[in-house]
Amino acid sequence: MERSLPNILVTGTPGTGKTTTSEMIAEAIGLEHVNVGDIVKSKQLHEGYLEEFDTHVLDEDKLLDELEEILKDGGKVVDFHTCEIFPERWFDLVLVLRADTSSLYDRMVKRGYNKRKIDENMECEIMQVVLETAHESYAPEIVVELPSNTVDDMESNVDRVKQWLEAWKANNSK
């Protein structure tokens, strides 16, 4: 897919800083932030709500149809907690944010997550579920694992993406 600007996916366990990092990246390099969770809720791209996990049941087909149009021209920083549902061709870079379990636990408690949701997400982070899924779903050279424990980590991650974008532009200029 020929694009004048890349699409970047920022993924990770809930609480790893995806939205904050995505907003920082988008602002720093002039791309548009796309919060998939917000789109799912606002456009009702779900099949109901799971009370025990405090989450919506995603309608993947509707979501993919919606995002296809949004992402086709590039220039997007997409933020979502899972990655395997998206076609590989959509993304030029996949960032998997990781956080220490103590930081992550505190963030989830602060958000008011129920115990089951916290336990499930903590287990996912410890078992590196999102990282492994990203490696299974995308070419190894586009998947990058980044620490996301502090504001300094986030700023460093933004700087790395700026450098990556310069290289991408140099390699993809017509």
UniProtKB/TrEMBL annotation:
Residues 35-58 are annotated as: NMPbind. Keywords: ATP-binding, Cytoplasm, Kinase, Nucleotide-binding, Nucleus, Ribosome biogenesis, rRNA processing, Transferase. GO terms for biological process: cellular response to oxidative stress; maturation of SSU-rRNA from tricistronic rRNA transcript (SSU-rRNA, 5.8S rRNA, LSU-rRNA). It is an enzyme of class 2 (transferase). Its main location: cytoplasm. GO terms for molecular function: AMP kinase activity; ATP binding; ATP hydrolysis activity. GO terms for cellular component: cytoplasm; nucleus. Residues 110-120 are annotated as: LID. The keyword Transmembrane helix does not apply. It catalyses: ATP + H2O = ADP + phosphate + H(+); AMP + ATP = 2 ADP. Its EC number is 2.7.4.3. ATP binds at G15, G17, K18, T19, T20, R111. It is found in: Cytoplasm; Nucleus. It comes from the Eukaryota. Belongs to the adenylate kinase family. AK6 subfamily. PANTHER family: ADENYLATE KINASE ISOENZYME 6 (PTHR12595:SF0), POS9-ACTIVATING FACTOR FAP7-RELATED (PTHR12595). Broad-specificity nucleoside monophosphate (NMP) kinase that catalyzes the reversible transfer of the terminal phosphate group between nucleoside triphosphates and monophosphates. Has also ATPase activity. Involved in the late cytoplasmic maturation steps of the 40S ribosomal particles, specifically 18S rRNA maturation. While NMP activity is not required for ribosome maturation, ATPase activity is. Associates transiently with small ribosomal subunit protein uS11. ATP hydrolysis breaks the interaction with uS11. Interacts with small ribosomal subunit protein uS11. Not a structural component of 43S pre-ribosomes, but transiently interacts with them by binding to uS11. This is Adenylate kinase isoenzyme 6 homolog.
